[in-house]
Design a protein that fits this description.
By secondary structure, this protein is an alpha/beta fold. It has 2 domains: about 1-25 and about 280-420, 2-enoyl-CoA Hydratase, Chain A, domain 1, CATH 3.90.226; about 35-275, LarA, N-terminal domain (Rossmann fold, 3-Layer(aba) Sandwich). Helix content is about 30%, strand content about 20%. It has helices at about 35-45, 50-60, 90-95, 120-125, 130, 165-170, 205, 210, 225-240, 260-275, 300-310, 335-345, 350-355, 365-375, 395-400, and strands spanning about 1-10, 10-15, 70, 105-110, 135-140, 150-155, 160-165, 170-175, 180, 185, 240-250, 255-260, 285-290, 315-320, 385, 400-405. A hairpin with a 5-residue loop joins strand 6 and strand 7 (about 160-165). Helix 12 packs parallel to helix 14 (about 365-375) and helix 13 packs antiparallel against helix 14 (about 365-375). The chain is globular. The two termini are about 15 Å apart.
């Protein structure tokens, strides 16, 4: 037997597999030798942009009482916001050095349609100095219409509503992680604004069924990707003075720092990840075993890991996935669970026919269920074995696929820990 170590967020799980398996993995890029140095260097030698210091000075000349918003990702992205490789405090430090008081700085969580982060979660994520200096922090709420500003429509017809705190800031700074993304090609850049800071109504076209049905709405495709194009158009409407994005390796160590212009800095980061996130395939497999890694905090997020396994699967093959769902919402929102269960009942073909019908009423989170249909269009649900120890017997009744607990001795089922598996 081969013993494989798999990182699932903060947990490392040992898996025993047959000797004759093939192990497919991405290349391990070289991490930056001195993350703090390269972060500071990027803030000075910016891409297609003045340095962050210069931008701050220019804005303060126009308005000495300028307000600043620093946009951060939520906990679905392993962005390094604290520690030696932390990217948040170097920004805050530069703002404070320009005599911008703490109460004129806002850290805004680009939650998109996700739930808000608790104070405990924020303290786990962020540099403790943020709290020592009492920097205000807010979660974006896509349903709070009183805190949304209307910016008109996109060329595709989306009504653009953006977080009002963001729009009222004089200096707008975006932060984030650039990694492969199964709808928009890559995360980071424009996605901090769209979908990070948009109103729920603005999602209808951006994450609507016709747009996601495009074969270009896929991993590592930027050119002609309608999701990328829509997000970029929205982000340009809202404006961003500066971005600081990073790339990471499998151990969450910095491999690149990209600061400067919204579009150009992001392009350079995408070029970086393309070098090492792909796995060449010369055949398809009857059985694929994969995992949800860090991203799989709930079943909603594990779709990203399942979808990237599709090219390795033979039609009607079997996919076995393990995940460490540990979020407050182990599956996802109530609407997501309702639409996901609909997929389980009627199947992928009928589900896609339904959501593409002109009579269908858009439901938030349907987009993630639509992504699951990509998997179930290649393999039947009974060939998808899913195991996450914290999910209950009733949870598995909601989600498509086979409950992995049935392969465990009865005494070890539904024990909320990998130690029992």
């Amino acid at each position: 037997m081969k013993r494989i170590s798999i990182k699932l967020g903060k947990e490392i799980v040992e898996v025993n597999l047959p000797d004759n398996i093939e192990i497919l993995s991405t290349e391990q890029p070289k991490p930056l030798s001195s993350p703090a140095f390269f972060i500071q260097k990027a803030l000075i030698d910016s891409i297609s942009s003045p340095s962050l210091d210069q931008i701050i000075e220019q804005k303060l000349k126009k308005n000495p009482q300028a307000k600043v918003v620093v946009v951060i990702s939520d906990n679905t992205r392993p962005v390094p916001y604290k520690g030696k490789a932390g990217i948040l405090w170097p920004i805050i430090e530069k703002l404070l050095a320009k005599n911008i008081s703490h109460n004129r700085i806002l850290i805004l969580v680009a939650a998109g349609t996700h739930r808000p982060l608790s104070e405990k979660e924020l303290r786990e994520m962020l540099d403790p100095r943020v709290f020592d200096y009492r920097i205000p922090i807010k979660n974006h709420n896509c349903r709070d219409k009183n805190n949304l500003a209307y910016l008109g429509k996109t060329s595709r017809g989306s009504s653009v509503y953006i977080n009002r705190d963001y729009m009222e800031a004089d200096i707008k700074i975006l932060t984030g992680l650039v990694e492969t993304h199964f709808m928009s090609g890559a995360s980071g850049g424009r996605k901090s604004i769209c979908p990070g800071l948009i109103g729920e109504e603005s999602i209808y076209i951006f994450h609507g069924a016709p747009m996601l049905a495009s074969p270009k709405a896929n991993d590592l495709i930027i050119n002609d990707n309608p999701c990328h194009q829509e997000a970029l158009e929205v982000a340009k409407k809202a404006g961003a003075d500066y971005i600081l994005n990073v790339t990471l390796d499998q151990d969450f160590k910095l491999t690149g720092v990209f600061a400067g212009d919204l579009e150009e800095a992001h392009k350079q980061a995408v070029k970086q990840i393309i070098k090492y996130v792909t796995i060449p395939l010369d055949k398809e497999y009857d059985i694929v075993v994969t995992h949800a890694g860090f991203v799989g905090i709930n079943q909603y997020q594990t779709a990203k890991a399942a979808i990237v396994a599709i090219p390795a699967l033979k039609p009607n093959g079997k996919l076995i996935m393990i995940a460490n769902n540990n979020d407050k919402d182990l599956i996802g929102s109530e609407k997501y669970k309702a639409v996901l269960h609909l997929l389980k009942i009627i199947g992928a073909k009928q589900f896609n026919h339904l959501i593409l019908s002109p009579d269908w009423t858009f439901i938030p989170d349907q987009w993630q269920v639509q992504m699951w249909t990509r998997l179930f269009s290649k393999i039947p649900p009974e060939n998808f074995i899913y195991y996450s120890p914290r999910l209950s017997f009733n949870d598995y009744k909601i989600i498509p696929g086979v409950d992995g607990n049935i392969y465990l001795p009865r005494s070890k089922r539904y024990k909320a820990s990998f130690k029992n598996a």
